[in-house]
Amino acid sequence: MSDRILESLFLDQTLWSDVLEWGVRKGIAQSVLTYIQDPSGRAKLCEQIYTGEYPIEPPHTGYVKKEDGGERTFFINAPLTRMLFHAIYLWLMRHEGSMIHPACLSYHEGIGIGKIVQNVSRQITTLHPQGEPCVVGRKFDIHHYFDTIPRSVIHNALDKVERHHGPSSVIALIGKYYDSDLYYDTRKGKIVESYQGIKQGCAVSSWFANVLLYELDAKLSALGGCYVRYSDDILFVGESYEKATTLLKEELQKIGLSLNEEKQEDIRSDRFVRFLGFDIRGGEITLSEKWVKHFQHQVDEITILNKPLIKQVRRLRKQATEASEKHIQTLAGHAMQRLAKTLYWGNGTYSWGTLVLPIINRADDIRQLNTYCLDALRALYTGRTHLGGLGKPRQGGITRGKGRDVAYNRKATEKWLPQFTPLFAMWQLVGNKWLYRTLVNDLLLAEYPKYPITARQEGVSEEVLNRRYAQHLKSEPDGKKLARFYAKPLEEQEYEDLLFAPSRATTTETLDATLRSFGSFNELAGNHEHWFWQSTEHPELVVLRKWWELEDD
User: Fold this and answer.
1) Can you give the pTM of this predicted structure?
2) What's the CA dihedral at 352, 356, 358, 363 to 10 degrees?
């Protein structure tokens, strides 16, 4: 096979493993995943591309609301084509990374939005540490970037790839796809013909969005200051922001593009500027209105908007018996676990907590979100759901509306507070991933028996206790593997259960903070060599700490 790109694409087993993982996350049909996983399926796919016989159906439209109230149209391909285009996208990002300027940070592996936002905040603070409020930069938006980029610019990028690697049927396939103006309009219910630019929504369009403005990125970066581009969102912080504005307009005009003047905004040291879903004011970072509403929606879906659950709580509340009271607490406990899983665990890799909490730094806003979580959980105890919503004005912190049931719910739950690790605590601990995971595991593994309770259900098995209190602390006895530190009855602890650490003080603080957060362990006296914590609920369950300090190399 003389097609170097095609050969490299289909021989890269790691790439296809990544494609399969991506397909699972995106909910691609099992039949398509099986086809891609099967070597014979990929071989057939490779042959179809090589011979030019791979059929690409016109994409269909999807729609999403934008933060400014408008609507964005994106294009969705058939499942197999989505998988193939994601594979091509990964190949392009890994083999043609030099075509992307370092100032363009969108869709890069290992470069999250949070890092970009924090860097911008640092740059604003550095350029204007103190003094009178003033303009320190400017934010721009390219008008209909994805939809209007000329076809000639697209083909120039594809030609450059082939100059690097030789002619390829893969590039021919991509060129053919972008030369077609056909798509299925889901609202009109028919095939229509209209130019779609780089077809936002297609995986390859993310690569195009990065590479097509390389010359512009290079010239604006040369002005000094802080220049950042994330797809069609551009931000320049520095004294040359006026010059950057002129240069940006000139460079875009050369390729038939323009700025969206309505979204152009000066960056001031004393005012919030919205960038990539966050509001930034100097060193302060908080959520934008869209993120706040998204947060409230996640909480409400599990709590006050869960109509079957609220209906059941109200019915049990009318019974006013001891059994119904315990049943309500169990229902609220299960909802708490679902909320914790949604906010703190997500898909096991990313969650709202891991994406947002490390970035925002306004304590008052965190407290506002935390209070809303607790009020929503209290509503599951009383059945009264008028809480008042969250808001975020453009210039200011997160606000809360007045809900007529809030005061009643708080008073009614004075003796019952949901066992929910506060958002404020998770915000403080998220920087320590081991401690963060431990707290989340404790929330997710907590036992809430079903009611009405029976004698058999009163006890909690030792296996569950051991699993519940497994500590994921960074402890490496041999420097090669991670030793998990389990909590179990004292007489059953073995060598593998001991806690190893290069520094006793550091790890002691981590373990102590963990157990204090649980609120269900008491520290018992011990000597210098070892001591332990004991569960208040299950006295036979202890966490032994015996230290084996590693000698420095």
Assistant:
1) 0.73
2) -110
